[in-house]
Write a structure and sequence with these properties.
The structure is a single chain. By secondary structure, the protein is an alpha/beta fold. The chain is built from 16 helices and eleven strands. It has a nine-stranded mixed beta sheet with strand order 3-2-4-5-1-6-11-10-9, with helices on both faces. A two-stranded antiparallel sheet has the order 7-8. The chain is globular. It starts with a helix and ends with a helix.
Length: 465
Amino acid sequence: MEFLSILYALSALYFIFTLWKRYDEKRDQQCYILDYECHKPTDDRKLDTEYSGEIIKRTKNLGLLEYQFLLKAIVSSGIGEQTYAPRIMFDCRESCPTLEDSITEMEEFFHDSIQKVLDKQGLSPSQIDVLVVNVSMFASVPSLASRIINHYKMREDIKVYNLSGMGCSASLISVGIVRSIFKTNKNIYALVVTSESLSPNWYTGNARSMILANCLFRSGGCAILLTNKRALKNKAMFKLNCLVRTHHGAKDESYGCCIQQEDEQGRLGFHLAKHLPKAATRAFVDNLREISPKILPIGELVRFMLATFLRKLRQSSSNKLGTTLPKPVINFKTGVDHFCIHTGGKAVIDGIGKSLGLTEHDLEPARMTLHRFGNTSASSLWYVLAYMEAKKRLKKGDTVLMISFGAGFKCNSCFLEVVRDLEDGNVWKDEIAMYPPKSLTNPFMEKFGWLQQEDPSTFKLENLL
């Protein structure tokens, strides 16, 4: 009997030890965002209304109809006069970029933001264990990641990932890679570098679906420092609770709605198809369907299911009368305090706001970021997050839902928990008092509105010049 008692006791202890070990290992797999640094280019790269007009004038392949289309697009875009362009635009060489132009644009961002985020945390480059770089529309040899490693003299055993072609949702893909590495490696630091190179991607043709990209994209980037060190959890800014990626690349319509291609004259550009909103909506809905059970309270999920069930019962009798009952809407604000939305354009922000039932207060960070910095591709989410921080909205225990879209077609989202009160402001700290402005109306119509009255049969480029 004593032997059996000892055996039972040892078995119980082993079971408890196994449970504790698994729990302890899980604690070391957490993903914390220690800090991030958004890039703010120098003032000599600001793209105001007057200089934007000068750039458009230099594009000789455009006619009056294209000028009118671009004017309408930029006026309704939500973009202001404080955004930034690459230096090649100010050297009047956007139609003939060199390899060095692209590399210089990226290195200016790298050397600024990476150094700042390391200095803020008191880390040396040799302490970084994982480096993930995402720049979608420019790939060099050696890779951009290798250039960073060479410049900062990082360790030989650093794990390196260099992503391209992932579009505007690439930063969450990069964070997802880091999270996966954290599950099998303890006590490490990871650096995510997210940006886009605009220098080699100015479209010089006249296809409307491709000149639109020239209006929306602006220079920017962000360096993000992450760790799974348990000892640093209280020093971190955010804890990553979940991340969901939705990829509709198997659907031809979704695959082709955002694609880099040549026009009929062989000019390379970025094509935005008319069915893009439809593809984005499908991906968005599928993504929300997966992430909702992970972030919303059970009470709201049960309420939504009951409302959906009752609607189906009532709809059968309503069909006889030829009426359609409204679909029940799930309330995401029951589980989410702040919404960090990709600044893909005013229509994107409006569409997400309508789908989720958000207020203007909820949409303000995305609208202000679009107005101040434009669409900075994969890094845009972090400018939106920095706005919330600068406005002192992010308090300990708050939750943030980040939503981004990208070519492919992809919709990626992640759910963050604020670990401590945040109020630094990052890239916004010197000018946050001026936002939101009284009006987001840009002066393009005031400056170039006369184009709308021109007659295509008599219009000459000299009139614009």
